[in-house]
Give the backbone structure.
Amino acid sequence: MTEPSEKPAFLTSQKRNWPTLAWERGIKLFFGGNALVAVLVLAMIMVFLVREGAGFFRQNHANLQLYRSAGLEFVEPLREQEQTHIALSRYLFDLRVRAAEFYSNDEGLERGEVNARLAPIDDYIYEFNDAIEPLQSAVIDLSDMASEIKVEALIHAERQGAAGGPGGGVEGIPFDFQSARKPLYVFLPVYHDLNHQFADRLLALVTDYEVDWPTTDINARFERFRSLTKDYVQEFPAIERALSEWDGDTPVPGWKAWSSFLTGSQWLTASFWQDWYGVLPLFLGSVLVSGIALFFAVPLGLGAALYVNQMSSRREQSVIKPAIEFIATIPSVVLGLFGIVVLGEALRVASQQGWLEWLPGAPIAERLNALTAGLLLALVAVPTIFTLAEDALQSVPRAFREASYALGATRWQTIRKVIVPSAFSGMVSAVLLGFGRVIGETMIVLLCAGNRIAIPDFTKGLEVFIQPVHTMTGIIAQEMGEVVQGGIHYRALFVVGLLLFGLTFLINYIAQRLVRRYRVSLL
Amino acid sequence: MSPSGFHQLTAPLSLARRAEFMLVWVLRVATWTILLAGALVFGTIFFKGAQTVFQTSFPFVNVAFLTESPESLYVFEHAGTTYELSDSEFRAFRSSLEEAARAAGEAAPMLQSKTYVYAAGGIFPNIVGTLLLVLGSMVIALVLGVASAIYLSEYAKQGAMVRMIRLSILNLAGVPSIVFGLFGFGLFVIFFGWNVSLLAGWFTLAFMVLPVVITASEESLKMVPRGYREGAFALGATRWQTIRRAVLPHALPGILTSSILGIARVAGETAPIMFTAAYVMRDKLPWEVERFFDFFFQGVMALPYHIFVVSSKIPQNEYAEHVQYGTAFVFVALVALIASVSIILRHRIRANQRW
């Protein structure tokens, strides 16, 4: 404290008071500097996400270029061809399983008898499986060759890097992909022959052979198998054309590095063949899980806000509001644990009850799936939505309600026509912020969403809800601990983080704009 | 309130009234569904966890669980009885058997044991680690947050600068926790070279909770009546004197209680500390360091991360469940204690605050 001067403050010169003034200015500067920390942190988050993630697209481009140069891309259609054949075999085997079930369950045959009955079918399946063998061994050889080229190129690049300093002898000698790839092209005529044999064999199998299936249902499925196989065989010339037209020397365009990240359907890392960094399955997984959460949280949260704000008694309010605030403090990892040990199992057991069979997707196969995670996330979103929506309702001026009552409106009419429209923007922004909260939630999805990296199969209707999914937040938490610093995988995770950051930023921005623009006041 | 309860001479309820009546019930059910779901989670954790943390005989609390480090559990049969021993006990038991066998001149018996990681011992280092993380980040966040709030509410004039600060605060509040984890990892762990350490965790958590603390503090500062400030100014006090003597003392209880709620949320976060501060296992306690500065640069075990590890990284069985629920119970109790103190205090302060 300074002593009060004899003269009034406005008469004292500033010079005499300068220590106090400097002190005051210093304090103001200190507080102002602290206030800037928030800006600084936000800027630094962006800087560091970009800094660590920036190299990803260059590395991904090199990754894709190597995929092409080394000839892996050349072999890919063949591998797909093989995969499709395996899928067809599996379909066929599924028919056998159905037939076996029919024999043992409906006809009550012994195991040996069943096998005897199924013997011709088994022969047929073996024939179908074996048809691909010559082609398969060729594909394996080719895959090995391409992988070898890739490894050699990587070793070459590493040596160059090691000797790359000033005076390094081998600097600037690019790896000779063209000559390395030559053995691959030699395969083309061989493939032509093999492919023809394979096609003939398959067509003969599906047209000439009659298989004796026990039920009409299985017969119908077998017909489907036949047509699928025919379609499959019809694709062969296209594959051949693609192979002969393939050119390993055209450089991969730069935008591919971006598009393969944003729209790539595979997130495959530490694979012996080729790593893919496609964010689409993770993004859709996040959206799906958040969608489920909001499906439950929005009606509950908004309903509770309406109820507490408009209809409940004071006593009820004083219980509900702190209780919901309390729910907000449940740590997400504890909710995740609850999902693993209680909810997942409970849902599965419930879905196995006979009287719930009509539900889509029942019985649930996987204990941990999008629904389990979504339900728990709803519990995370509800307090956010409730609190903000309640605030919005609270800020509707009393006079609005009173005017409505004075005009003779009932309570329901007042709520529907006056209060909800006035608070609508606030309620929408509450939902948006709830969405932002849910999509950024990590531990629950990491523990309960099932962590299968695949695009959710939306063609299955409502069953999509019970598929295991992986999410953007989950993948960061799961893989960040085990990646090489500065590697492409490490950078890919930072880019996912950046995407997540941008997404929540956008959601926040829209929510804020909504509230500002449509705020209702008496003036 | 049911329609049948009315006197026979009262007019029957109109359709509109009936609809309204239904609506009230639908919304009431929705509200109580939420509370029920919350109660279900709490109830499960409480009842299952209590079996681990409490016991029926004296001293009624499972002291070992609260004061020991996590260890592996060895389950084996010997001489007809089944033993469940922790790592150290198991070794002692085996060597005692070997001693006895040597004295008797026989070959030592082989013990066929099954091992369950983390299933024995307790969670003492985790409790300590969480408390350290919370305390440190609380101090940093309160200093930064209260100072920012004072600037925003007492000094700042409306302008582009302040608008930017407010926008940043709002957006910072929406950044997902895992992004804070990435940021802390990139800045503190790698760029500053602090490695996985308490310090990195403190700052990551503090920055995460900053928006909550700033908003709560500003609200409390705004609630102090203008007259207090004007009175102080009229007496010739400078701005800082006014803030220190006339504003802060009245705002401080509000600031603290509201901030504690934010702190409780920080204590519950796992994602930000996964790569910045938490170790899966560490055999030294935080204060067992050689030099003073090492204290800040050591990773710690933390309750939330331990829950994550025991619920997803080890095989599920009854022993694992024992630890899962026990840890979750202690953790929830800790967080709930902090949160409920804050919620109750806040409601009381609001009720008592009459200017």
Summary: The CA atoms of residues 51 and 174 of chain B lie 38 Å apart.
